[in-house]
Amino acid sequence: MSLDPVLLEDIINRSLREDIGTGDITTLSIVSENHATTGFIRAKEPGVVAGLDVAREVFLQLCPDISYQARVKDGERLVAGQLLAKVEGDARAILTGERVALNFLQRLSGIATRTAYLAGLIAGEKAKLVDTRKTTPGLRVLEKYAVRVGGGQNHRFGLYDAVLIKDNHIKVAGGITGAIARARTLAPFCMGVEVEVESLEGVEEAIRAGANIIMLDNMDLAAMRKAVEQVGGRALLEASGGINEETIQAVAKTGVDFISVGSLTHSVKSMDISLDAGEVKPIPGVNI
User: CA triplet 156, 158, 163: central angle to 5 degrees?
Assistant: First the structure.
């Protein structure tokens, strides 16, 4: 798993400009130029870490000479108090970048932690946990990366890389059959078509119309089991809608192929991570 360095650079650049603006007034007024410090980044609670390279990019954009040493790898399970990384160098850069770096680390680790927990609940079942497009605008690539780090899989990244016919598309098209037929006129022949249905009648119509994937939207367990029997392997089935830790195991046991959970990204609790700075000292050999 890796992040596109060009996209990462742009996201970090925008985030730093948003936070710093015309300058970090507090740090510039308190910390002298050409002073160094060491920052220790630690987990304050257990979880799964994600975003270490994102935090590195924050500090390096502020000062290319900063030393950033990760002590763990993305995807590792942490205990409270564990050291994640040590950052050394220009004190102004470290203090200025602290909040942006931690914001990314905390949110991405929160997503990875939640994903790992839910994926663990259905381990052993054929159903795979997937995310949705319910992500923070501008941060989708990072949040979906965190889902993969946590052991989940990515659904489509955007409107451009997969056909997913939702309820409003069906209304505009006048029905499932018409919507699928119209979608196939533009979609590449190698791209499958997924359609959202709310009933077993919708499942049957989607099968007849040639859907490759059928999303079972907010169906109860009994209906899901019937849908699995009804489809008989002719299409993949995705369960969606309000699924959480209390229901995900039962949903997986119905025999569906995928379970999409929007809360992996849209309402996840960030992990508690801190940066503690050491003593600020002049950089050896530099005139102040």
Answer: 65
